[in-house]
Amino acid sequence: METKQLTQGEIELAAQILREGGLVGIPTETVYGLGANGLNPEAVRHIFQAKGRPQDNPLILHIPTVDWLERYCREIPDAAYELARRFWPGPMTMVLKRRDVVPDVVTAGLDTVGMRCPEHALCRALLAAADVPVAAPSGNTSGRPSPTTAQHMLEDMDGKIDAILDGGPCSVGVESTIIDLTCTPPRLLRPGGITLEQLRDALGQVAVDPAVTRLLGAGEKPKAPGMKYRHYAPKAPVTVVTGPAERSAAYIARHAGAEDGIICFDEFTALFRSEERPRTVMDLGPAGDKEEQARRIFDALRAFDHTHVPAIWAQCPDAEGIGLAIANRLNKAAGFHIIQA
Ligand code: AMP
Ligand code: MG
Question: Looking at per-residue confidence, does 224 or 84 come out higher?
């Protein structure tokens, strides 16, 4: 199949493809998604095929406005409306009890469903035009880093999906925060653009699922099924180095091989790439600018797949604010191979 590349003016065409059961690459503020009509089980099955996604990993249902929540969810707690009031439209997904209209294939058979109302203007226009809830995971081939540009998504999906709507580079750069509101206290399942601090400010106590910060043991099951898979991973093995930026940079400088790839804060680029060492170095942004680091993290991980580096070393910000999401994605890319400098 030929993948059509659509621009702003072609929203109606993208909406029509969705309504008719096709697959469309969708820009959002977090990452590009691979969308289908969420009420059409056959269309949703094609998402799993195009990505090579395991059947037990549910999708998120995207809606244009908060008042669609009642159509697909039941026993909605007040906390959901409070979070929606503060953070929707935006990079936050709420896990709620689902209604029977939501096909099993969307929720991977769970009795809950992940719901999100995205902020990206083009995405909102598309959801409104399609007039159906859009089921979508990230638009990468399963296991690869999530796409943050239309070009990334084409790398993985060209010829496998009907169309991709180009909405420019994603402004957040990491996937949505997922919070489970079916348990007490509510539980953070995946850190993202809405921070743990913001969630606690809104709700008081919020638990953090162990899968966010460490590798789970053989018998342990994360509440977001997607968190158990090796994820976001470039082809070369990754080592994450934490601690103050000067310390982690010095540690990597001492240990990295001459051919190794480096992900570092802008301040240290020159330390790793010199005339005698023409290494592949991806800048993550200034050490103090985590928003920029979040925007660049997946592009950095993806870039190494076009090289032959034997190993990758990455500096990592502290876990405050969106740092928790950046650290989570880096740690998962590294299979939680983390060194404290
Ligand atoms: P992606 O946006 O590509 O990461 O895919 C959606 C993510 O949402 C996956 O990590 C899923 O495991 C998670 N998710 C979707 N629905 C649910 C649900 N009902 N309960 C827990 N996690 C969910
Ligand atoms: Mg994904």
Answer: 84
The number of beta carbons lying within 10 Å of the beta carbon of residue 281 is 18
28 vs 167: CA distance, rounded Å: 8
Distance from the CA of 237 to the center of ligand 1, in angstroms?
Answer: 25
Place of tokens 């043991």: 217
Mean pLDDT of 87-97: 98
Cα 132 to Cα 1, 20, 92, distances in angstroms: 24, 11, 19
pLDDT single digits (tens) 278-317: 789 999 999 999 999 999 999 999 999 889 999 999 999 9
| Confidence class for position 192, pLDDT limits 50, 70, 90 | very high
Distance 158 CA to ligand 2 centre (A): 17
Helix (H) or strand (E) holding 296: helix 290-303
Q: Which helix (H) or strand (E) covers residue 96, if one does? A: strand 92-98
Write the pLDDT tens digit of every residue in 78-87: 999 999 999 9
Q: At what angle do helices 150-157 and 290-303 cross, to 10 degrees?
A: 30
- Residue nearest atom 5 of ligand 1, based on CA coordinates: 137
- Which of 95, 156, 227, 230 gets mutated to test ligand 1 (max ligand atoms within 8 A of its CB)? 95
Q: What is the predicted pLDDT for the residue at 230? A: 67
Angle at which helix 196-203 crosses helix 78-87, to 10 degrees, equals 130
Alpha helices in 52-145 (DSSP H): 69-72, 78-87, 104-107, 121-130
How far is it, in rounded angstroms, from Cα 335 to Cα 206?
A: 25
Q: Closest residue (by CA) to atom 23 of ligand 1?
A: 224
Residue 232 has pLDDT above 80, yes or no: no
Integer CA distances (angstroms), 101 to 37, 98, 104, in order: 13, 8, 9
- Determine whether the shortest distance from the Cβ of 113 to ligand 1 is under 6 A: yes
Cβ atoms 60, 136 nearer than 8 A: yes
Residue 24 pLDDT grade (very low, low, confident, very high; cuts 50, 70, 90): very high
